[in-house]
User: What shape does this take?
Amino acid sequence: MDQIHLSGLLQQCLQQDRRAQKALYEICYKQFIRLCMTYNSNHEDARFALNNAFLKIIKGLESVDHNNLNFYSWAKRIIVNSLIDDYRRNKNHAELIVNKDSESALEFHAKPTVNDADASLSYNEIMGLLKTIPPISAHVFTLYVIDGYNHREIGELLEITEGTSKWHLSTARKLLRDRLHMLEQQTEKQFNL
Assistant: This one.
């Protein structure tokens, strides 16, 4: 969408034009639902989170300078902050307790592999793999690798220390490496390689 059309649409949204708000939502939906899916385990939760974040975006339009606004970056920041707020509100402390024995066993069996096939994983495959690791480690991985936050920012957002953030990132990488290795072995068995 070009900047002129977007500016006009944002102005209509400021005037509480529901059709313009719906049009903006539909234009942004595909990009923003993917972002929400990185933090939620199913599509319904992701859609619920996006709807809540979009309300914040619409309400926040009044308080920003539209001449200097990169709408997509600004909206993404609001969505990520909203997702993190939801995570904080709903986090289940039982999910945060990592079974050290099973983690140690997984880490022991995780072997670093260099595989060109890893680079060709689809977005859905990567999101599926992220859902197989502890939620807090997946959140830290997503914030650091995908969203570009540093460990200090992640610590503040998730209310953990920088060291804990680094530990979760390391754990996520090891577990994902293990999952990729298992996926590679399954593929080799399937195709008798």
Q: What stands out?
A: Residues 94 and 134 are 11 Å apart (CA to CA). The chain has ten helices and no strands. The first helix runs from residue 3 to 14. Confidence is low (pLDDT under 50) at residues 93-118.
